[in-house]
Design a protein that fits this description.
Blueprint lengths: L2 E5 L7 H12 L5 E3 L15 E3 L19 H6 L8 E6 L13 E6 L10 H5 L5 H19 L4 E4 L2 H11 L4 E2 L6 H4 L16 E4 L8 H11 L3 E4 L5 H7 L4 E5 L3 H10 L3 E3 L7 H8 L4 E4 L4 H4 L6 E4 L4 H12 L5 H8 L4 H22 L2
Parallel strand pairs: 1-2, 1-4, 2-3, 4-5, 5-6, 6-7, 8-9, 9-10, 11-12, 12-13
Helix pairs in contact: 7-12, 10-13
């Protein structure tokens, strides 16, 4: 079985990119096709065989793909997959637009139906920076996305939350395969006091600094609480968020893996103020034995056991988050139980579930095209 992967853009590092690295472990010879590829920004992808599209050579496309909304689907349509038995699109956007021959099985591992077109379009269309641009293109892009969504033969979803969206927006059934978590990497290992990243107790937030992540909500809450919060990540909101941050809040930018592990291991808890499709950082924190204080919405409701591996706050408001932190401070937590829960999402389990899914679907497909 000859397999290829297709991903929207290889130009950053986030939770979805860790899925690609896990897939590369299983299928080391499989190429990865993508609209644009930035080796500098996606340093993690140097092990992969990456095949970018013609869009990669357009001005600013590697960093501002949104400048070419009418070309991105065409970029994926330009690839030829006739030599492959199975094509897997890992996507929250246009990668599912690839065109395959009937004999080639197209599996879509859907990260979510495109957020800015469907589930969160109101939030995006009111964004000061992108809203006007998106409103102009919205109807066209929704129409194209529905055409693209009909191309995969089979869908898998990263969570039950995403599974429900696939059914609602694309009218497709799907199987849930939770993404991989490298639990061993984050498991707690006592370190000398001098190696600890911060001397005082702190809460941790790990995220890209973009509007829908609700980082401003966490900053306002911890300004009010006057408790220490460390924010790890980068993005276009960085300058504005630094201006909001009071003296108890530190924005570190992007940190090395080893430093991130230490930050997880020595924090009091992870703060997750946004609705996530799955929320990999939520389980990375639990793998380190740390509870999570999360908005009661989206993927967090599938990965946190309330009052045992974390606490939910019900509304995306400062008061609700503040109440959640105060509730956390009044409880004690069982690190071993939290870590045991995280191991249910370990990379080994993902690999087993994903490979079985591919093999099962390939066997079914072969019966139709002997």
């Amino acid at each position: 079985m000859k397999i290829a992967f297709v991903y929207d853009r290889i130009n950053k590092l986030g939770g979805a990119e860790k899925i690609l690295l896990a897939l590369h472990q299983v299928y080391p010879q499989a190429p990865f096709y993508t609209a644009v590829y930035s080796p500098r920004a996606a340093f993690w992808a140097k092990k992969l065989s990456v095949q970018p599209s013609f869009l990669n050579y357009f001005p600013l496309a590697k960093t501002h793909h949104e400048l070419y909304p009418w070309l991105t689907s065409m970029a994926f349509e330009s690839f030829n997959f006739d030599q492959f038995d199975v094509v897997v699109s890992v996507t929250s956007a246009e990668a599912k637009a690839v065109i395959t021959q009937p004999k080639t099985l197209h599996l879509c591992y859907c990260l979510t139906p495109t957020r800015y077109l469907w589930s969160h379009r109101r939030q995006y269309t009111h964004d000061p920076a992108l809203g006007k641009f998106l409103r102009f293109w919205l109807t066209y892009l929704q129409r194209v996305d529905l055409i693209n969504a009909a191309r995969p033969d089979v869908y898998a979803a990263i969570s039950k939350t995403v599974q429900q969206r696939i059914k609602k927006y694309y009218h497709q059934d799907s199987q849930v395969i939770y993404p991989p978590v490298d639990t061993a990497k984050f498991s707690f290992r006592p370190q000398p006091k001098a190696d600890r990243p911060m001397a005082e107790a702190y809460f941790l937030l790990v995220s890209r600094l973009v509007p829908y992540k609700n980082i401003n909500l966490a900053i306002q809450a911890f300004n009010q609480l006057q408790q220490k919060l460390v924010i790890v990540g980068f993005g276009r909101e960085a300058a504005r968020l630094k201006q909001l941050a009071g003296p108890t809040i530190k924005l570190t930018g992007q940190v090395a893996d080893q430093e991130l592990v230490k930050l997880y291991q020595h924090c009091q808890a992870l703060i997750m103020p946004q609705e996530e499709d799955f929320g990999l950082v939520c389980l990375e924190a639990q793998a380190a034995g740390k509870p999570v204080i999360a908005l009661q919405s989206g993927g967090a409701t599938e990965t946190i056991i309330n009052q045992q591996t974390g606490i939910f706050f019900k509304q995306p408001t400062v008061d609700s988050l503040v109440a959640g932190v105060k509730q956390f401070n009044s409880r004690s937590w069982d690190m071993n139980f939290i870590q045991a829960h995280a191991r249910k999402f370990d990379t080994r389990i993902f690999i087993n579930n994903f490979t079985n899914f591919v093999e099962d679907q390939w066997q079914i497909h072969q019966k139709n095209f002997p």
